[in-house]
């Protein structure tokens, strides 16, 4: 059962009472000791006077008379009250005196005040006599090395607090209750002010825009304003931190990288979906427990690095990180570990399989370009070297070599243009402006531009597109798409063939097109690779008639730019057919 806590006002009151009582006790003890010493001094002065009177009488009168004088003096009501007087010799033995109320002691030599008197001339002390419950004041004084006067009188304690003549105790009691009332009044005001602050803070939390403050004490008002100001700043920082956290989590959610953040105790704080997916591709068994990565052999070196560099030194400002490449199940991952100053850490996984594939593709493309450039460059060089080496060559052969060299330079120019155009489609597609375009007009333009080549090859171009077929795209790319299809037929289909183009269907978003020729066709085992860059069929269709080898790659990228897909298949027994789609014009039914 939870114990109820004592309020600070009650604790403050209890602390005040305890401190005040401690103060009273210490002060009373000191005061009583001072009064006791003062009373001893008074008693000493008084009994010294009595002792001097007795000593004077001893010097002037015979022994019998002294005995009687001492007996009468003991019965006189002195200032110090009842006394017992003894006249002793120098050794402390009694010479004169009566028996007194406590019996007769013939030998006083062992009394402390007597021994002090023998040394210093006088001595005094306070103690309880044997068999008595009250203190007595004892005094002894030596006179001219002839005798001593010893006096015993009851010692009344002047330090009693509650006597009729001691107002000090009553003053302390009055002071205690007065101060207690003052303290509790101020505590009550402080408690009331603190409750006002709590009420205000609760209202400020519900209504952050602010409230009017009315406090009786300027100090409490200042404290409250400071608290409210700090609270507002804290809330603002919290909101900014929450907004930043939401942005960061949103970034982690959509970023193309798997990210997981762990605490210093290696507990998962956050993991995006991509990280979970990558981890499940790497681990042998699917799991949602990200702690399994600590036991995965593929991450062993990473976490050995983590063990070696944690805990982080307080003054270490380095950004500790570890990077490696992990391969599993046919995919490549770039792994990175970041260790933060609070010993928490981040693990990220980036699937670089596509990047590696693109790197390999670019490497292959570079090799292919070098191979494609090698033939025309070698031809140009050979023709020029022949002309330079044979200065007396006849005009007909000179013209032949120059024309061949010129044809090869045209082939080089075409290759360079196609590579540049293809790269522009892939890497800077946002530079191509889109608009609504009539496809039939673009195909007619291609036919007019290639009319002489088509007639020379005996190829008939049948443009069966309806005038209302309109797509949303870029004129340059659409022209390149259809021109490369027609040029592909020109270069590889053979003589006396026909080309047919039509839009055979449409849906809500796309037009579906059919392009085919009746030429020699392509074997089926090559159809899936026709759109690869620089791919050579090797049979039937050769490059003896020219071409850069990038025409169909440009076609594929142009179709994808327009939101469609393209595939190739054999047309009937010998021809080649391309089926593709393009995005319909915007704002058209």
The unreliable regions are: 98-105, 539-544
Given the helix and strand composition, which structural class is it? alpha+beta
Give the distance, in angstroms, between the N- and C-terminal Cα atoms.
77 Å
Helix content: 40-55%
Major β-sheet strand ordering? 2-1-5-4-3
Query: What proportion strand?
Result: 15-25%
Tally of separate helices: 14
Mean pLDDT: 77
Outline: rod-shaped
Largest sheet: 5 strands, antiparallel
Q: Measured on Cα atoms, how large is the radius of gyration?
A: 60 Å
- Strand elements, count: 17
Name its key features.
single chain; 589 residues; alpha+beta; five-stranded antiparallel sheet; 14 helices; 17 strands; rod-shaped
Summarize the structure in words.
By secondary structure, the protein is α+β, with helices and mostly antiparallel strands. 49% of the residues lie in helices and 18% in strands. The chain contains 14 helices and 17 strands. It has helices at 8-60, 63-75, 112-120, 168-206, 218-254, 273-282, 300-308, 353-389, 395-427, 439-449, 451-457, 475-492, 524-527, 551-561, and strands spanning 84-88, 94-96, 122-127, 136-143, 147-154, 258-262, 268-271, 320-328, 331-339, 345-351, 435-438, 460-463, 470-473, 498-506, 510-517, 566-571, 575-583. Strands 2-1-5-4-3 form a 5-stranded antiparallel sheet, sandwiched between helices. It has a 5-stranded antiparallel sheet with strand order 7-6-10-9-8. Helix 4 packs parallel to helix 5, helix 8 (353-389) runs antiparallel to helix 9 and helix 12 (475-492) packs antiparallel against helix 14. The chain starts with 7 loop residues before the first helix and ends in a 6-residue tail after the last strand.
């Amino acid at each position: 059962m939870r114990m109820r806590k004592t309020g600070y006002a009650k604790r403050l009151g209890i602390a005040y009472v305890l401190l005040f009582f401690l103060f009273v006790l210490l002060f009373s003890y000191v005061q009583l000791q001072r009064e006791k010493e003062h009373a001893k001094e008074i008693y000493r002065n008084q009994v010294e006077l009595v002792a001097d009177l007795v000593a004077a009488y001893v010097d002037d009168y015979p022994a019998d008379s002294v005995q009687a004088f001492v007996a009468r003096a003991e019965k006189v009501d002195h200032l110090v009250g009842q006394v017992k007087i003894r006249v002793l010799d120098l050794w402390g033995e009694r010479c004169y005196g009566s028996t007194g109320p406590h019996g007769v002691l013939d030998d006083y030599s062992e009394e402390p005040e007597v021994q002090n008197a023998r040394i210093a001339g006088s001595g005094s002390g306070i103690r309880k006599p044997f068999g008595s419950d009250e203190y007595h004041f004892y005094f002894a004084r030596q006179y001219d090395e002839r005798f001593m006067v010893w006096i015993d009188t009851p010692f009344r304690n002047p330090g009693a607090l509650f006597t009729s003549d001691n107002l000090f105790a009553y003053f302390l009691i009055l002071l205690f209750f007065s101060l207690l009332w003052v303290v509790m009044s101020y505590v009550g005001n402080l408690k009331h002010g603190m409750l006002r602050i709590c009420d205000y803070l609760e209202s400020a939390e519900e209504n952050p825009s602010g409230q009017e403050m009315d406090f009786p004490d300027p100090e409490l008002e200042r404290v409250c304003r400071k608290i409210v100001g700090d609270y507002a700043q804290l809330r603002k920082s919290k909101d900014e931190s929450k907004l930043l956290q939401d942005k960061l989590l949103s970034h982690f959610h959509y970023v193309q990288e798997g990210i997981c953040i762990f605490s210093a105790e290696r507990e998962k704080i956050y993991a995006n979906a991509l990280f979970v997916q990558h981890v499940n591709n790497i681990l042998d068994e699917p799991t949602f427990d990200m702690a399994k990565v600590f036991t995965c052999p593929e991450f062993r070196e990473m976490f050995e690095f983590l063990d070696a560099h944690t805990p982080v030194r307080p003054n270490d400002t380095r950004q500790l990180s570890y990077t490696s490449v992990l391969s599993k199940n046919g995919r490549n991952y770039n792994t990175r570990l970041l260790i933060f100053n609070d010993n928490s850490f981040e693990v990220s996984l980036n699937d670089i399989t596509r990047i590696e594939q693109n790197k390999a593709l670019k490497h292959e493309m570079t090799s292919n370009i070098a191979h494609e450039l090698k033939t025309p460059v070698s031809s140009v060089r050979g023709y020029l070297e022949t002309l330079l080496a044979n200065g007396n060559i006849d005009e007909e052969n000179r013209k032949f070599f120059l024309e061949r060299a010129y044809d090869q330079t045209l082939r080089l120019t075409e290759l360079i243009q196609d590579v540049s155009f293809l790269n522009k489609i892939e890497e800077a597609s946002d530079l191509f402006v889109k608009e609504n375009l009539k496809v039939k007009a673009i195909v007619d333009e291609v036919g007019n531009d290639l009319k002489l080549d088509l007639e020379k090859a005996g190829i008939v171009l049948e443009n069966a597109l309806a005038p209302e077929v309109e797509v949303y795209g870029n004129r340059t790319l659409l022209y390149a798409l259809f021109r490369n299809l027609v040029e592909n037929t020109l270069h590889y289909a053979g003589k006396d063939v026909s080309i047919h183009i039509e839009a055979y269907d449409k849906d809500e978003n796309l037009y579906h097109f059919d392009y085919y020729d009746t030429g020699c066709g392509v074997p089926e085992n090559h159809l899936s690779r026709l759109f690869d860059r620089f791919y050579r069929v090797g049979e039937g269709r050769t490059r003896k008639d020219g071409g850069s080898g990038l025409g169909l790659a440009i076609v594929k990228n142009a179709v994808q730019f327009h939101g469609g897909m393209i595939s190739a298949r054999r047309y009937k027994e010998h021809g080649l057919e391309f089926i593709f789609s393009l995005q319909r014009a915007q704002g058209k039914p």
